[in-house]
Specification:
- The protein is an alpha/beta fold.
- It has 2 domains: 3-139 and 295-325, Quinone Oxidoreductase, Chain A, domain 1 (Alpha-Beta Complex); 142-271, NAD(P)-binding Rossmann-like Domain (Rossmann fold, 3-Layer(aba) Sandwich), CATH 3.40.50.
- The chain has helices spanning 3-11, 54-60, 66-69, 133-138, 140-153, 170-181, 195-200, 231-238, 256-265, 278-289, 306-314, and strands at 13-18, 29-34, 42-52, 79-87, 99-102, 116-120, 124-126, 161-164, 185-190, 205-208, 221-226, 241-249, 268-271, 297-302, 321-325.
- Strand 8, helix 6 (170-181) and strand 9 (185-190) form a beta-alpha-beta unit.
- The relative contact order is 0.15.
Length: 327
C-alpha cells in the first residue's frame, strides 16, 4: 500500500463506538469505520463532544429503542457538539468552520458517538459563546425533551405549579429552569445531597424522595414531569395533580392503570418522545444567553472510556449530564 493510498484510507475512516451484541457497558468498543459523507441538505460535523442519555444506555442493553433498530452492530449517540466540516448540495444556513450543536435524526440512528456525523443541516444550530463545547453536547436531547414538555405540551404559564421528578438529572434540571423562566412555581424531588444544586438553579421547593412519600408533602399541582417511569409512581403523581392537571410520563410511556385513573379523576396524562426541533434549540440557547439556563456537566470522559461513562449514566445517580470528549 502506497503512502497516498494510506492517506486516502485514513481520510475515509473514523473512530466510532460500536457494539456487536446487547449487554452491559463492556460490550462497547471503539473501532475504525467508514466516515459518512453529507447528502443533499445535509452537513458533515466533526464531533468534539457527545452527550450520553439514558436512552443510549437502555438501548445498548437491548431495551429502550432496541426494538426499533433490531440487532447490533450499530453506533448510538444523538447529542453532539462540533464543527461543520462540509456541507451537501442546497445547504445555505451553515458553512464549514461553524461551531454547532444538535440532536440529529432522533429517533433514527445518528451515530453520534463517533468522530464525524452527518444529518440534515436544520437539525443543528450554531453554538453560542454562552456554552462550552461540553455543555453544548449535553443540551440537545435532554433540553429539547424538557422544552417540548414544558413549552409545547404543557404550555406552562406564569403562576402555575410544576412538579419535576428526578429534578437533578439530565431532563429534570433543564425542566426546572425552563419552567422557572416561564414564571412557574417549581417543586423538585431528589436525594438530599442534590437539594442545594436544585435551589441554585431556581427550584422553589425541594423534596427528599427517600424521606417519605412526596404525595404527603405537595398537592394542587398543574403539571408533573415524571422522569421515573414506574407505573406505581405515575399513580402517585396523579394523586397530587389538581383536576384538569397534566402528567407527562417521560421514560416509559403511559401505564394503562394510570391512564384509567386519570380518566376517572378528570386529570390528563400523556407520554412524549423528543423530536429534532430547531425552534426549540434556539429557544434553549436564548435562555442560556440570558443567564436563565445552565447545563450541568458532572463528568467529561474521552471516547475510549465510553464504558465507564455508560456506567455513570446507568447508575441513575448522576447530576446533570455525562459527556464524551473527542478533542
Amino acid at each position: 500500500m502506497t503512502d497516498e493510498t494510506k492517506q486516502t484510507k485514513q481520510t475515509n475512516e473514523m473512530t466510532a463506538v460500536t457494539q456487536d451484541a446487547f449487554g452491559a457497558p463492556g460490550v462497547l468498543r471503539t473501532a475504525r469505520v467508514a466516515r459518512p459523507e453529507p447528502g443533499p441538505a445535509e452537513v458533515l460535523v466533526r464531533v468534539r463532544a457527545a452527550g450520553i442519555n439514558p436512552v443510549d444506555v437502555k438501548t445498548s442493553r437491548g431495551e429502550g429503542l432496541a426494538w426499533y433498530y433490531g440487532e447490533p452492530p450499530y453506533t448510538l449517540g444523538w447529542d453532539v457538539a462540533g464543527t461543520v466540516e462540509a456541507v451537501g448540495f442546497g445547504v445555505t444556513t451553515l458553512r464549514p468552520g461553524d461551531e454547532v450543536l444538535g440532536m440529529p435524526r432522533f429517533p433514527a440512528l445518528a451515530g453520534g458517538f463517533a468522530e464525524y456525523v452527518t444529518a440534515p443541516s436544520r437539525h443543528f444550530v450554531r453554538r453560542p459563546e454562552a456554552l462550552t463545547v461540553a455543555e453544548a453536547a449535553g443540551l440537545p436531547l435532554a433540553g429539547l425533551t424538557a422544552w417540548q414538555i414544558i413549552v409545547d405540551t404543557a404550555r406552562v404559564t406564569e403562576g402555575q405549579r410544576v412538579l419535576v421528578h428526578a429534578a437533578a438529572g439530565g431532563v429534570g434540571h433543564l425542566a426546572v429552569q425552563i419552567a422557572k423562566a416561564r414564571g412557574a412555581y417549581v417543586v423538585g424531588t431528589a436525594s438530599a445531597g442534590k437539594h442545594g444544586f436544585l435551589r441554585e438553579i431556581g427550584a422553589d421547593r425541594v423534596l427528599d424522595y427517600t424521606a417519605g412519600p412526596f404525595e404527603r408533602e405537595v398537592g394542587d399541582i398543574d403539571v408533573v414531569v415524571d422522569n421515573i417511569g414506574d407505573p406505581e409512581h405515575q399513580l402517585r403523581s396523579l394523586a397530587v395533580l389538581r383536576e384538569g392537571g397534566l402528567l407527562v410520563a417521560v421514560p416509559s410511556g403511559v401505564d394503562p392503570a394510570a391512564a384509567a385513573e386519570a380518566a376517572r379523576t378528570g386529570k390528563r396524562i400523556t407520554d412524549v418522545l423528543v423530536e429534532p426541533d430547531q425552534i426549540g434549540l434556539l429557544g434553549l440557547l436564548d435562555l442560556a444567553e440570558r443567564g436563565l439556563l445552565r447545563v450541568e456537566v458532572s463528568a467529561e470522559l474521552p471516547l475510549d472510556r465510553v464504558g465507564e461513562a455508560f456506567e455513570l449514566v446507568g447508575s441513575g445517580r448522576t447530576r446533570g449530564k455525562v459527556v464524551l470528549t473527542l478533542g
